[in-house]
Design goal:
Elements: E1 4-5, H1 12-19, H2 23-32, E2 40-41, H3 50-59
Parallel strand pairs: 1-2
Amino acid sequence: MGDHISGSGLQRAELARRTGCNLETIRYYEKIGLMPDPPRTAAGYRVYGAGHVSRLRFIL
């Protein structure tokens, strides 16, 4: 399992909102390896950081 973090950062919906990208598109990019897997909180939630925002904007 991936790294666990405290919970600061963005959830996938916020990442989508900030970049204008569809949620399903983000899932697809993760599945095919264009986007790196984000770390997860102890509760298992994906948490995206500034690097994910930058990378997604670049891909788009």
